[in-house]
Amino acid sequence: MTLAVVMLAFLTVPMSISGAAVALPDIGADLRTAGAPLQWVMNAYNLTFASFTLVAGSTADLVGRRRTFVASAGLFAVGSLAAAAAPGIALLDAARALSGIGSAGVFASGGAILATTFDGAARTRAFAALGSAAGLGLAAGPTLSGWLVGALGWRATFGTHAALVAVALAGVGYVAESRAAQRPRLDVTGAVVFVAGLGALVLGAVQGPEWGWTSPGVVALLATGVGLLVAFVVLQARSAAPLLDLSLAKNRRFLALCMVPVVSTFGFVTLLTYLPTYLVGASGLSPQRAGTVLLLMTAPVLLAPPLAGGLVNRGVSPRALITLSLALFAGGNAWLTVIGPSTSVAVIAGPLLMVGLGAGLSFGVGDGAAMSLVEPERAGMATGFLNTMRIGSEAIVIAVYGAVLVSLISGRVGSKELAVRVAAGDVTGGASGAPAAGFTDALHIALYGTAAVCVVGTVAIAAALAQPRRRVAAEVGAADSPAPTKVT
């Protein structure tokens, strides 16, 4: 029951990300809004989700992981219901920000609950199942939301998210409470500095494409974010009860495992975000057909985590599986450069399956391996840090990737305004076929760049996860040495 409760919540949270994106056109038409206010339906959620995850994880260790899970899931449900009932875009954006705070607590406390409930092979299976649940939510979100929007309207999307979390809350009585043995006061100053710093950094990245990366507002936000995060590290080093124990970040293998979702953002999430636009705009597919094609990339995310967990329990090295998964991101993105406006699905099926398999192998196994390196007392803090890396990188990388894509398209179509429309899937205007060709060239360059980033990430993470040579030598020496003779 513990696993089922956490899995249902983990399914709903990413569903709220990918599903809301599909509802945006109908939200804009119904509330008579467009542009930045409409886009903040997504941005507000991502901003608070990224900013509050670490705080929620450390809070869970102090006040109780189940208690934090219940409060956070309830906050998510309230935010979703408020979004479903919002009469205007301002209240809708505020409700989404509230849901993002709840999502941060669900992810941080949910992972900590599993880390302290299960051990050994059971923990590996639990985190593999959790990876499948998150992948299912991410993949099913657009399909379910599209059906709900078409049948009942966009408000039904947020109402369904609230209902799913309410079902999960009905089973929390079966979840055991746990907390750290020593419970000092929460580092409120550190929490405020961290939330403000990461929030400013993410906000600067989100607004960069719209305001311009060299605009005073964006530069000020990015500089403020970096400055506050540096101040946060200094505060944590001096704090007797830090929000983030810096020894976690100094653990080379744990930090490497926290970088796995960052590479996954480059190799998988960027494609999940921008490839549908290309398929609909440049390739001329219907949204339904594009969604079907993307199943080639999302289906392995549902099937591979249990396979990976089973392999680990049979003795396969998690390091080997994680290295393979990241290498598949690099190979899949480079291979996907075969795509063009008239390319058949059969031609791109191979690279899409490769990328999806890479995501499926890393989902769950990486998180489980990271949590195995942390003692139970710091489980919430560790999951908070891990998911901060995941959600924060998604918000920043997706914004930067989109800005790079627009810039590359602009250099080929000769107009930034046209490039923005082309990147959004509108390939009308300009010379015949030029927008689609420009979109294709820009996507190819972005894919090669992503592949290069994934290669660097693969090598760096594989090296960091390797056992120290001195430890290996000591183990070999101990195995080869004869048993000591007992002296009488």
Q: Look at the structure and give the CATH class of the largest domain.
A: Mainly Alpha
Using only C-alpha atoms, the radius of gyration works out to 23 Å
The topology string of helices and strands comes to HHHHHHHHHHHHHHHHHH
Number of strands: 0
Unreliable stretches (pLDDT < 50, length at least 5) are 472-488
Short note summarizing the structure:
Residues 1-23 form the signal peptide. This protein is mainly alpha-helical and 488 residues long.
Characterize the structure shown:
- The chain has 3 domains: 178 residues, Growth Hormone, Chain: A (Up-down Bundle); 56 residues; 218 residues, MFS general substrate transporter like domains (Growth Hormone, Chain: A), CATH 1.20.1250.
- 81% of the residues lie in helices and 0% in strands.
- Helix 3 packs antiparallel against helix 4, helix 7 packs antiparallel against helix 8 and helix 10 packs antiparallel against helix 14.
- The C terminus is likely disordered.
- With 488 residues, the chain is mainly α.
- It has 18 helices and no strands.
- The radius of gyration is 23 Å and the shape is globular.
- It is a multi-pass membrane protein.
- This is MFS transporter.
- It comes from Actinomadura litoris.
Quickly list its features.
488 residues, mainly alpha, Growth Hormone, Chain: A, 3 domains, 0% strand, MFS transporter, transmembrane transporter activity, MFS_trans_sf
